[in-house]
């Protein structure tokens, strides 16, 4: 079971497309770990978040030591893990675990709207941006800058890159082709 969870998270991270999660209710243990692995997270206002592992004599899993620590910082990760503190949705947003908090009844529509917004953009740009951001977060400054430069030059040379620039200059909506 752990291998399956980890494999799914590894695949999500490797796929050059943003992944959106909607959280309703409680996200504890592996649920919180999974939430931290998504690129963008919409939470219902009544959602609760807790690591819960040490409360039952276990240690963090589900790649939380990788993703959650990056989202909330080392001290907050330690606090969440060692004390099993429960975060409200608002606290989770303030701490950087979730991107937006919406009314509970709006979770599905808000997540779908965000996903549609992402899907309506240049098909390849968001995925490449995701790759650049994750890579830059773990790289030396110069390596991150070089990787960014390489990717923006490549993106600018695509049909979508040219269309995006032209649409901006002409003050119109772009027509994406995925090429």
Secondary structure layout plus pairing:
Layout: H1 2-14, E1 20-23, E2 26-28, H2 30-37, E3 40-44, E4 48-50, H3 64-72, H4 74-83, E5 87-88, H5 89-95, E6 100-102, H6 107-119, H7 125-137, H8 141-156, H9 159-170
Parallel strand pairs: 1-3, 2-4, 3-6
Antiparallel strand pairs: 4-5
Helix pairs in contact: 2-3, 3-4, 7-8
Q: How does this model look, in words?
A:
- The chain is mainly α.
- It has helices spanning 2-14, 30-37, 64-72, 74-83, 89-95, 107-119, 125-137, 141-156, 159-170; strands at residues 20-23, 26-28, 40-44, 48-50, 87-88, 100-102.
- It has two domains: 2-119, 2-enoyl-CoA Hydratase, Chain A, domain 1; 125-170.
- It has nine helices and six strands; from the N terminus they run αββαββααβαβαααα.
- Helix 7 packs antiparallel against helix 8 (141-156).
- The longest helix has 16 residues, at 141-156.
- The protein is globular.
Q: Which fold does the CATH topology of the largest domain refer to? A: 2-enoyl-CoA Hydratase, Chain A, domain 1
* Overall 3D form: globular
Parts with pLDDT < 50 across at least 5 consecutive residues:
none
CATH architecture of the largest domain: Alpha-Beta Complex
| Distance N to C terminus | 38 Å
CATH class of the largest domain: Alpha Beta
Secondary-structure element order, as H and E?
Answer: HEEHEEHHEHEHHHH
Q: How many E strands?
A: 6
Classification by helices and strands: mainly alpha
Strand content: 5-15%
What is the average of the pLDDT values? 93
What is the share of helical residues?
Answer: 55-70%
